[in-house]
Design a protein that fits this description.
The chain is built from 14 helices and 19 strands. It is an alpha/beta fold. The chain has 3 domains: 141 residues; 138 residues, Glycogen Phosphorylase B (Rossmann fold), CATH 3.40.50.2000; 175 residues, Vaccinia Virus protein VP39 (Rossmann fold, 3-Layer(aba) Sandwich), CATH 3.40.50.150. The strands form 4 sheets. The chain has a 7-stranded mixed beta sheet with strand order 13-12-11-16-17-19-18. Strand 1, helix 1 and strand 2 form a beta-alpha-beta unit. It is elongated, with a radius of gyration of 41 Å. The chain starts with 6 loop residues before the first strand and ends with a helix.
Length: 548
Amino acid sequence: MTTPPAIHLAIIQPSGYVHSLGFLDQARYFRHMFRRLGARVTLAKNRLREDAVNIVFGAHLGFPSDWQQRHACVFVNLEQLGDGGAAVSADYLALLRRSAVVDYDAANVPAYAADPGSVPIVSFGYAAYLDRPTLPLEDRPIDLLFFGSTNPRRNAFIARVEAAGFNVSAFDHAIYGAERDHFIGQAKAVLNCHFYESNRFEQARAFHCLSLGTPVISERTPTTDPSAAFEDSVLWLPEQVEDWFRQHFAKPSFHAEARRALEAFRTPDAAHDPLPAYARMLAFAQRTGQEHASARTTTAVGPWRPRAIHLGAGNDYRPTWLNIDADPQSHADFCADFSGALTLPFEATTQFGSPVLIEAGSVEIIQATHALERGADLRALMGNALDVLRDDGILSITVAHQKSLAAWQDPATRRALNEQSFTAFTTEFWRTGWFAHRFDMAQAQWTDAAGQPAKEADAAGLRIVLKKVSTTPRERTLARTMQADFGGIDDDVVADMPAPPMPMPDARPAVAATTAPSPLAVAPTPTPPQRANPYGLPASLLALLLDA
C-alpha cells in the first residue's frame, strides 16, 4: 500500500437514540490510528461517502442494504456474538456474512464468517489525544464509577462490591463524551463487569478510561480473554471479590499498583501499541474499496437518482434520502434553500462526494419538515416540489400552526401557516400560475407539541399530505379564465411557411389634403358650364343662336 485510501468513519444513530454516542470513543481511536498511518479521515453520523471507504459503527441498529450498492463499506463489529452473547437480528448477521468486516475479538467471528481468517482483528490501546492533567488518585472524590447498561447479572456483581463497604456510583441517565469523561477523571477507578454470559472483555470501554488516566478494575472469568495490552494494565479481580476490595482498595498499595498499571498501558511496545494491526486493516479497507469500484464499473452504476427528498432535514438526517437544509449546521447532503431557482435536469455532487441527478417527475416522495416556514419564496418552493415529483407523488408537510406559540419559536421562520395556506396550491392552483398539474389535499391533521393527533383547540402544528395530480379539462379552462395570459397559448407559428405569390398592396388609406388656403391667394377663374349642343353646330354659330 503506497498511498492510503481516504477513510470515512460513519456512526449509525437511529433518530433520538442517545446510546449511539458510545461509538464515538472507538471511532475517534480508529481516526487517531489511521492518521498515524497517513490516511485522510472524516467522521459523520448516518452519512456515507462515495469518494472514500466507509468504516461503519453500529450497523446492528439498522443499515439500508441498498447503501452498499453505491458505497464501499467495512463494518466494525463491537457486539459479543455467538453462544451467550448479544441477541442481534438475523438481518445484521446476514449483513456481516456478505460484507467486509473487522472485529475486536476473534471469538465473535465464527458467528458470521465461514473463514475466520478473512476477518481482521483490531484491538484498542493508549489514546494519546486523551492525555490531560489528572487529580491524584488519593484526592478523587468518587470511589468507584460504573457506566453502561445494567441487567440482573451486573446488578448482582455491583451489589457484591458494595457489600464490601464501598460505594459504586452510576449515572441516573445516559451520558457520553466530554461530560462523561469529566466524571471518569473524578473516580479512583472504573468498575467493569460482564453483561453477557460469554464474558468477553469490554476493551472498547476500558481503553478510554485507561487513556484518561483512571484505573480499571475488572471481573475476570475463565472465558475472559483480553488482548495483550490489557493483561498488565487492568486490575483483575479474583473470584473472591469482596475480600479483594476489603484488603486492597483505596489503600496506598492499591494506588501504587494502579499507577504501575496506567504506566504499563502507555508503553509504546508491540504488546501495547496495535498500530501494525491497523496498518493491515487499512490495506484491507483499500482492497475493499478497489473491489467495490471494480464492481461499480462492471454494472455501470450512474449518478444517484434519489426517489425521496427530505427538506429541512435538520438533525433528522435520513439515510437513502436526499437531505436538503439551508442551515450549514445540519450537515445535509446539500446546504441550500429549495425555493431557489431549479433547472431540471439538475446535476451536482453532494458534500459527501455523491453525484446526484434529479429529473422532472422522478421523485416519489418529499418530506418537508418546517421547510415551508423558512423558505425564502414559498411559491417557488412549492413549484420546485411539483416539478420534481412524479404524477401521484407525495409532498408530506410538517409545519407549526399559526395560532401556536411555536410558530415563531425558530429564528429562521419567515412565515406562519394555517389550513388555508395551501388553497393556492390545490383548489385555486391557478393563483400560483400553474396549469397542467396541481396538488390535491390527501390529508390534513392538527397535531400537538409531540406531533401526535390533536383537536384544533390544542393544535401546535399541522401535518399536511399533498398528492401531485394532473388538472382536468374543466380546471384548465378555469385557469385560462382566471389567468392574465390565458394559461399560456401557442404562438401559432407555422414552420417553413411559403412567401406570398405577389406583393401585398399598400394598406395605408389615402389622406385628403388639409392645407388651409392663404388669405392672399387669388381665387381661380371659374370654368363656365358647358352648353348643350345636340346638333353638332360650330361653337360660334351656337353662341349666336342661344344669345339671340
